Each structure stands twice: as C-alpha cells, then as structure tokens.
Amino acid sequence: MRIAYLDCSSGISGDMTLAALIDSGASLSDIQQSIDSMALGAKLSVSQVRKRGFRALKLHIVAPLDPVHRDLEQILACITGAKLSPGARRIVVRIFERLAKAESSVHGVSIDQVHFHEVGAIDSIVDIVGCAVAWDQLGIEQAVASPVPTGCGFVQIAHGRVSVPAPATAQLLKGIPLAKCNLPFELTTPTGAAILAELIGSFGPLPSMQIESIGAGAGTMDLEDRPNLLRIFLGSCPHDSTSVGIS
After folding, report:
1. 208 with 241: CB under 8 angstroms?
2. Span 26-33, mean pLDDT?
3. Is residue 247 predicted with pLDDT exceeding 50?
4. How are beta strands 142-145 and 2-7 bridged, if at all?
C-alpha cells in the first residue's frame, strides 16, 4: 500500500506541499499540462535552495495579475474544463468545497455567497490543482502527518489584520493536533490547512513503512530556529497495517 508521511514541523502551505511532492517524484511536466488546460496563464518552475543548510525545492509560479475574487461556482467551472484524472479532479473539488465551507462558517453566509480572496487567486488555484495531480500521480493511498504549528502574531488578509491562525485556517484545523510554536509568522496557510484536512487520515509520528523517497519543499521565509521546509516521506506499508487510515 502506498503511504505518505508529512513532516509539518515548520507548518504547511500549498506551494511547500507541491514542491515536496515534485521532489518526491511527481512530474512537473504533467502538472504543467494540467495547469495549462485551465487557461490561467500560469507557468511553474522549481529551483534548489537551502534552508538552514538543508537542500529543498522551491516552487515558483509566474502568473498574470489577477484582481478577480472568485466564488466556488467560478472555480468549479474552471476545474470542469481542466484535463485532470478522475482522482485528481475529486481531490481538487473536495479541497475547494472544504475551503468554501470554512469561509461560509466564519463569515456567517451561505456557501454560494462566499468569495475567495487569497485562496481564489491564480497561484493558490495552481497550488491546489498541482497538489491534486501530484498526489494522484504518486498513487498515495494513505497519509499521516505530524502535529502542525500555526505560528502566532498577526497576518494581513483581505478582511484586515487578523491573529494567527487566521479565521478560515482555524476552522479548517478543527480536529487536527497543533504543535506549540511561538514564532511570530503564519506557518500554516488556509491552503495548507485544507490539504491536511482533506488528505490526511491520521496524525502522529512516522508510521511503520518502507521509505522509497523523501521530498523537501521550501517555504518562503527563513526561520531563526528551524529549516523552513515540509518533508514528505513516500513509501509502502503492509496492506493489513492498522497504523494509518483515511477518514
């Protein structure tokens, strides 16, 4: 059985996840083809960087200026026309539906009234679609993650200055174990939280598995006490293992 373990000791974001999946063996070319089919004008590339001395891949997205605030219907219409495998399409739809439910809850409006700001931008759409394509391509059947730090302090979003974790992020992290962290940064983004909530079946230490590859995706910031990267361990475990499971 194909299993992934996400080491989220520095948090998680969409670009860190996609970079780590590419570093684990997912095809950037195939991901780019799926993105091209959405006619967003976005181009992806990766480069090797070092975070506190450790090698990782950094994802770069070049996209047109995008002032549009999309709603769920607009995003789903964009996904409908995309060339995606059935598995990748299911993942994308479920992540955006989860994001819409979180935004609906924190703003007290119906899902069809939700307008995505940060997560409706082209780069966030690319992150989510790219992660779904890579996840499906790598054949991941079960996934476990470590407890995740959110960071602390404040972050500026479309609705103003809010404390970390931002409201939608906190909603998405319900039921997910958090790790204490006093760094004054947003370490876990709404996209990262949605990926965890949708794709991870259980949380805890590295499970029993045979590791085949380890991918590292770099975050943008340089942190003072840890390398700012997400590690993904990819491998296999016995089919009768009870240590992991998708909820």
Report:
1. yes
2. 98
3. no
4. parallel
